[in-house]
Design brief:
Blueprint (H helix, E strand, L loop, with lengths): L1 H14 L2 H11 L11 E4 L3 E5 L8 E6 L3 E8 L2 E5 L5 E5 L3 E2 L9 E5 L4 E4 L8 E5 L4 E7 L3 E6 L2 E6 L3 E2 L19 E6 L4 E4 L8 E5 L4 E8 L2 E5 L5 E5 L3 E5 L15 E6 L16 H17 L4 E4 L9 H10 L4 E8 L10 E5 L2 H14 L7 E6 L3 H4 L5 E8 L3 H7 L2 H19 L1
Parallel strand pairs: 22-23, 22-24, 24-27, 25-26
Antiparallel strand pairs: 1-4, 1-7, 2-3, 4-5, 5-6, 8-11, 8-14, 9-10, 11-12, 12-13, 15-18, 15-21, 16-17, 18-19, 19-20, 25-27
Helix pairs in contact: 3-8, 5-8
Bound molecules: zinc ion.
Zinc ion binds next to loops.
Length: 438
């Protein structure tokens, strides 16, 4: 078995099938994946938030900018744990990064100077020992600070004492909000966090000169450790923490701030499918086909915001309600939206859109924000309603179920089958989610 695995690994290495390798590694760990070759990625969006945990719900600790290079430590739910300068660790949404530029050759190579150099789990000699590396062995350097160097060790990240490794002239490390990137062009420091303090000294105990808000600009004067020395337009000078600001040069200003929706993972659930046709219209068309069409339209519109969008089914598949709800919980979706079309058996069918939620605490705001945007579309709005529906009840994540009109109402059906209405729905749901995540 071991021999086979080795052969597979050799094959994969040869062809640099990084994704497959990460998958193999995933088998050996429950939820956290140590990435082997995929240890460096480049930021693709104008700016991306760095959070303290793997998801939108975790606090924002700073930002990285387009073109910044990050070292990956692990992965969870499509979020990467990355190392920033100063031994800080944060999480970024992987879909906002350019994974195609991943390459191990982009990293510096070091030569081990001492026989049986110990590899530690953390930059700390009292942390767990991962193993040893032999003298003259070449290792990939992921990140380096004065005393400790992070290397790629057996597909994961490990630390060795910098004094035991050679050819390790100061590396730039991952560029991030913590670095004084663009040494020449740096001009403006822009605050990204509310109630940011300008202090007299470069530390968090320094006396406060003033408190400023998001968007405030300062002139960049210099850097002291992890703090920037800045000047305000009124002439006052002080220090701001590098992790609550972004730095831009006049040539490459940050075009747009990171938006919360771009970091969100959204599940769109096209109701019914496969054996289950859902409601049938008087024209003998099926609800299951409309829900899929609408889900695809919403996905397309949502992806323009940068969000990660997943459909519970991509074709005419049979899928239980339990599977749909579990998928939402498993990937810790930030929002789950189930799509349906109503029908009534009475001779005078109803009309209108209804947005259902189950638990007010968990789902109420999502229902309210989406429904508010659904008021401008062609079919009349019946408002939000609390209802014990399976995909909402057994869903650990914020979730709603939207009935997008009555499939057996002549007037609703005319809109349901029109491109115009479908576009309106896609735009309205996207606008609602944008507000929800703000
Ligand atoms: Zn239905």
């Amino acid at each position: 078995m071991k021999k086979i695995l080795q052969k597979v690994l050799t094959f994969l290495r040869k062809y640099k099938i990084i994704v497959a390798l990460a998958f193999l590694l995933a088998i050996s760990s429950v939820s956290t994946v140590a990435l082997a070759n995929a240890n460096s990625v480049v930021v693709k969006s104008d700016s991306v938030n760095v959070r303290i945990g793997p998801g939108l719900s975790y606090a924002n600790m700073g930002q990285v900018k387009k073109g910044d290079k990050l070292s990956i430590i692990s992965e969870k739910n499509k979020w990467y744990e990355v190392r920033l300068a100063g031994d800080k660790i944060g999480w970024v949404a992987s879909w906002l990064l350019d994974n195609t530029t991943v390459s191990s050759t982009a990293n510096k190579v070091g030569l081990i100077k001492v026989q049986n150099t110990t590899v530690f789990k953390n930059a700390d000699a009292s942390s767990d020992v991962l193993g040893t590396v032999s003298q003259s062995q070449k290792v990939s350097i992921m990140y380096q600070e004065s005393d400790w160097t992070q290397i790629l060790y057996k597909g994961t990240a490990g630390w060795v004492k910098t004094e035991f490794i050679e050819g390790t002239q100061e590396t730039s490390g991952p560029d991030s909000a913590h670095n004084s990137n663009n040494k020449d062009g740096v001009k403006t420091v822009t605050v990204t966090q509310p109630s940011t303090k300008l202090r007299i000294e470069p530390n968090s105990n320094g006396r406060i000169v003033k408190t400023v808000n998001v968007g405030k600009n300062f002139d960049y004067l210099g850097k002291d450790g992890k703090w920037y020395k800045v000047r305000d337009s009124d002439g006052s000078v002080g220090y701001v923490a590098s992790w609550v600001v972004t730095v831009s040069g006049t040539k490459n200003p940050v075009k747009s701030a990171a938006t919360n929706i771009s970091e969100s993972t959204i599940i769109i659930d096209p109701g019914h499918g496969g054996d289950d046709t859902g409601a049938i219209s008087s024209k003998k068309t099926y609800e299951k086909n409309f829900t899929l069409e609408y889900a695809q339209a919403i996905k397309k519109e949502l992806e323009k915001t940068g969000a990660r969008v997943i459909l519970t089914r991509n074709g005419d598949d049979t899928k239980s309600l339990g599977e749909r709800a579990r998928q939402s919980s498993k990937i810790e979706a930030d929002a789950f939206i189930s799509l349906h079309f109503d029908s009534t058996s009475s001779s005078s069918p109803g009309s209108g859109i209804t947005t259902y939620y189950y638990q007010k605490n968990k789902d109420g705001k999502l229902a309210k924000d989406i429904n508010a945007q659904l008021k401008g579309v062609q079919i009349k709005n019946r408002g939000t309603q609390e209802k014990d529906l399976y995909v909402l009840h057994y869903n650990s994540q914020p979730s709603v179920l939207i009935e997008l009109g009555y499939i057996n109402s002549k007037s609703d059906y005319k809109h349901i089958t029109s491109q115009k209405y479908k576009t309106q729905i896609a735009k309205a749901v996207t606008a609602g989610l944008k507000n929800y995540f703000q």
